[in-house]
Amino acid sequence: MRWSSAPDIQAPVRLPWMTDASCARPGVDPEIFFVLALHGSDAAAYAPALAVCAACPVRAECLALATSTPSIGHGVWGGLTPEQMRTASKRARR
Description:
The protein has four helices and no strands. The protein has 94 residues and is mostly helical. It has one domain. The longest helix has 12 residues, at 82-93.
């Protein structure tokens, strides 16, 4: 993720794999990953971000960071919407 443009979210650390992330490529607008404030929970609003994540070579690392960092609960991470991440976290706790 491009941390500097994400609304009110800072990466807990800067990890080497982040430079390989599809969302860090030039021309990718970081705002597409944080659409909740603009569109509510409309899943279709996340489509552009999910498309970027679909081809990301570090998707698993991104998702692992998001699910292991409680303060990251907003936006698309590792190809999952916030709702999908909450569902996955609940399943993992069972």
